[in-house]
Design brief:
Elements lengths: L12 E4 L7 H13 L6 E4 L4 H21 L2
Parallel strand pairs: 1-2
Length: 73
């Protein structure tokens, strides 16, 4: 998903450190691939969260980030 692709919008990656469904290493691999294409995609680690827990914990962070982006001139 992250290889040979350069998004036209800002990207952030969210991942739970205790996720057994998607390995945290996948997030790091995606970040590195995006960086190789010149994209800064910071990783937000959700400490101790599994797959569902990381999603639930990420939603408020994502909304906050979208609001920050929308407030930019």
């Amino acid at each position: 998903m992250c290889t040979d692709w350069t998004p036209r919008a800002p990207v952030r990656l969210y991942a739970g450190t205790a996720d057994r469904d998607v390995a945290f290493a996948n997030t790091e691999s995606c970040r590195r691939s995006l960086a190789a294409n010149g994209v800064d995609a910071p990783v937000e680690q959700i400490a101790g969260a599994d797959h569902v827990g990381s999603a639930l914990a990420s939603y408020p962070r994502i909304v906050r980030w979208f609001r920050e982006l929308a407030a930019r001139p």
